[in-house]
Amino acid sequence: GATVEFNDVLTNTTSSMPGSGTAYCVQATGPYTGFVINGNNLTAIGQGPALGVYSQNYGGSTEITIVNNKINVTGNAGNGYYDLVSGVELQDSVATVYNNTIAVSNIGGYSENNRVFGISYGQSTGGSHKYDIQNNTVTVEGKYAVYLMSASDSKVIGNCLIAHDLVGDDAVSIAGAGNVVKDNYPADAIIIIDVEDVLQFNDNTVVITIPHAIGDSVILEINGVNTTVDLVDGVATATLSADSLVVGVNNITAYYLGDE
Fold first, then answer.
1. Which of 187, 176, 183 is nearest to 147 (CA)?
2. Backbone angles phi, psi at 233, to 5 degrees
3. Model-level pTM?
């Protein structure tokens, strides 16, 4: 089979619009087996549909492996069938997705009906579809990080999944029989954020408490910038530097990377 490996790919179009015109880094149509996409930096930017990888079995059975890639996608999604923005759209017979870092943004703003995903099978093709999705880090400005409209005997296990409101296992939508969704994180835990008001040009301290947590860590998001902080006996402490804060309201969000 073919291999796409160790490339830096940028696809950037300003002529597209919601539902038409596309920005795809890698596109493939079956039949094929042993197709591997490994170790690439894929960036897709568009004003309409945008995908890091688009693979489909329309022409015949497909088997694809996507591993160790960094995929960044920005597009303009809506709720129409072709208004799709996703890190990888896999309309495949068999797909393996391991150890990728995927970030997906929608320039059109958030609605839970927008078709914005990290890893998806969102447009129907014929035949059966089987997926093995493990150890990926996915952040997405959509309702679900992983969306599989139809799958059988598939696995979504051990991924870091952060969607607009949902995280971990809750950020997976999968239909079909024999599928396993487990051990995806952050866990849906009780998180207490304690921070005081601060004077301009002064540093501050934020304390994150997660009752019953032992070890692990949290992702602390401050005004859109992420920092990973270790937990010790359920408590994580971080210093907020003055230059990371703005005058007025500062938005702080914490995601727990572990099991409660």
1. 176
2. 55, 40
3. 0.75
